């Protein structure tokens, strides 16, 4: 591949992993007391748990769509958001965080492994590049919401 391609892949990975001028998703999710995960402060529509789980579901869907012609996306919007404000059991939070990280790692490998510009054969014009940008944009948007909720709950740095 060309040097420009390698630079683009490197920058896309930085975008997916977050950081630079902004807090990472890991920063936003780190050290949240379990009793705060299900609170919806000031009448806001989502809790931290719901936002994190939404990130997991949406990122998983974009990853699976990118690599699997037989993937069936969840029903929008109902199946992209958990109905419960808090995790059912303490292990669910850890599983969600681990799944977000694992799926992001697989998506990064997908970026490194092929033609990011080519149309995904089973899509309607999407490419791996487009999906990478969408994952990064989506996760960044909701990361900022998690940080806002943490500020409102008095549990941000």
Automatic annotation (TrEMBL):
Domain DinB-like, first and last residues per copy: 22-146
Recorded superkingdom: Bacteria
Protein name: DinB family protein
Provenance organism: Mucilaginibacter achroorhodeus
